[in-house]
Amino acid sequence: MTARNPLLTLEHISLSFKGVKAITDMSFSVAEGEICALIGPNGAGKSSLLNVINGVYQPDDGIITYDGEIRTAMRPHHAAERGIARTFQNIALFKGMSVLDNVLTGRNLKVQSSWLEQAFNVGRAPKEALVQRQKAEEIIEFLRIQPWRGSLVGGLPYGLQKRVELARALAAEPKLLLLDEPMAGMNRDEKAEMSRFIVDTQREFGTTIVLIEHDIGVVMALSQHLVVLDYGKKIGDGPPEAVRNNPEVIAAYLGTRH
Amino acid sequence: MTADTLPFWLNYQASEQPVKVALRHKQRGIWQEKRWLELRHDIASLVSALQAKGFARGDTLYLLSDPRPEALLLAIAAHWLGGSATPLDPNAGEADTLSLLARLQPAFIFAEGQCQVDLALKLALKPPLIIYADARGLSGYQQGVLQPYAQWLGAANAGSISPPIAQAHDDAFVFFRLDPQGQVERLNLTHHQLLNQGRELVKQERLTSQEEALAARAFAASGHLRYLLAPWLLAGFTLNFPENINTRDIDRRELGPTLVAGTSQTYQRLEALIYARLPLPGTVRRAFLDWSLTAPAQTKPWYKLFAYWLTIRPLRDVIGFSRTRVPLLVGEVLPEPSAAFFAALGIRVRNWPDACDWQPSPNSPKPKHVLQDSYLDDSLTQLGAQA
């Protein structure tokens, strides 16, 4: 859809849960370095699609091409190893751990030392701990969460927890970042702040981002590419301007069809 | 005899105690140190870079920043070249700051990060030179008028700069504000004034090079220049900068500064911080705490010791005053209950005046353009992206 190489391509993806068709024959590409938004009414299959992309669900049909690798299915651990990180609609952090420790968990796949070296703090472990801490601190600074570095995540406000979750995902240095409703439940100012962080993530790290968001104003301002879903089918795909004028999208959103 | 100026005193400290720590700045969770000699070298680099960009005697460098070492060092570099620095209040509203800048027509601006750069770029004037410290979010901006501070530090000819040309009666800092009628007022502070008031503080409070001071407030308040910046250069102690304005309480607690210069608002905020952590009234713990804070003079010494270790000391720790020897209050006095509260903690707050002589500023034309704002335009820095 753009001149840039696609990082992710979905071809004819279908997914069903017993008799319920969640996704039907879905195909689209996400170019490297772009922000792609998945929009659609509740139950349209957006979150299911994210789960297919990072291997939580295995599609019934179709092919996923990610970073040159063609697969019919991908396991979550493989997706993480290949540079796919995500955040969740309902925050999935370790509430009893500090912000710093949560962010450090995002670095787990980058750790080279063995558990024995870590247990006795010998060999590669001490040097590596410093490197991981430094990387985590870079992300903490990037997302401006230094004041809460040592705070327990469970006691933080909702908007801040969302930011910590983003920090943990970024700590994994992902190529593809999947954000499931990163601004749900936020007020206008918090949304503006989170939007800025998302744009900065793309600009500063060159990360490709696929996000689900319901606030159309935010989506239009943030993304370079929109994919519109309705009842598990794709009804629109293209730049925001083109999608906004698509009669089928207008009908689905204005409710004239259903 | 060389002029009695701020750059002169920096040079002096760099020769007298070159390896003593002059500055500490917390970055990414770690306190980074700079020694006096390193500081002098950094300032020499900044002087070269400023000079190369046409900054000359009589020019003004505007500081759009919370307290951070980069702003301080650039201000001293401007002084070195015979110029002055104008700190702008980072807490002032965007519209006020823009209105003020539009009238002052700055040619040189130090902007802390993306927000401040965006603000400076909104000025529909001849684009000023903007030096920025935090590069985050600025990679998509046109770099013509934007200069990264970090790059300036590596100036090759830093060692070959001439001695400071500032004179004792030159303006070191010039403050501007808008009066209720929208007219610009100014307050000038010469090197001589700053150093004299600094000397008075050093003498009265017996400040030595062993002090640890925290620069948590913006230098936008002139009192902080008088009672923190000037004494730092005169006594040669260590000036510490928090990671950012939001971490200042945590950083103060970690550091335990011996010298604190705050305003009435600072002390009242710290008092509120303590009250927020106290046990609820009516509980046994709260009753013990209240007794500890108000224990009469005739209380037996070991009871007092007990109260000190169990309540007073932890409370002082909470606000980072565990080692504070010189708690300064600049400007407006503390309300009586707050003063009594700090006295009960053994913190005898000393009030120093922030005498200001604001004068109407000549040659400050009305702004010629209308400043506009819009929702996501701002948030997503479209302006910067187009720049």
Automatic annotation (TrEMBL), chain A:
The answer on whether this UniProt entry bears the keyword rRNA-binding reads no
**GO molecular function, one example?**
ATP hydrolysis activity
Superkingdom classification of source:
Bacteria
Keywords on this record?
ATP-binding, Nucleotide-binding, Transport
Annotated ABC transporter domain ranges read: 8-256
UniProt protein name: ABC transporter ATP-binding protein
Q: Name one Pfam family in it.
A: BCA_ABC_TP_C
Under PROSITE patterns, the record lists:
ABC_TRANSPORTER_2 (PS50893)
One cellular component term (GO) for this entry is:
plasma membrane
- The question of whether Nucleotide-binding is a record keyword is answered with yes
InterPro entries found in the cross-reference section: AAA+_ATPase, ABC_AA/LPS_Transport, ABC_transporter-like_ATP-bd, BCA_ABC_TP_C, P-loop_NTPase
UniProtKB/TrEMBL annotation, chain B:
List the Gene Ontology MF annotations in alphabetical order.
ligase activity
Q: Where is the AMP-dependent synthetase/ligase domain?
A: 12-347
Q: What Pfam families does this protein map onto? A: AMP-binding
Q: Which residues form the signal peptide?
A: none
Task: Specify the domain of life of the species encoding this protein.
Answer: Bacteria
Q: Which InterPro entries match?
A: AMP-dep_synth/lig_dom (IPR000873), ANL_N_sf (IPR042099)
Q: Which UniProt keywords apply?
A: Ligase
Lipoprotein as a keyword of this entry, yes or no, is no
Name of this chain's protein: Long-chain fatty acid--CoA ligase
Native species of this protein?
A: Methylovulum psychrotolerans
Organism lineage string: Bacteria, Pseudomonadati, Pseudomonadota, Gammaproteobacteria, Methylococcales
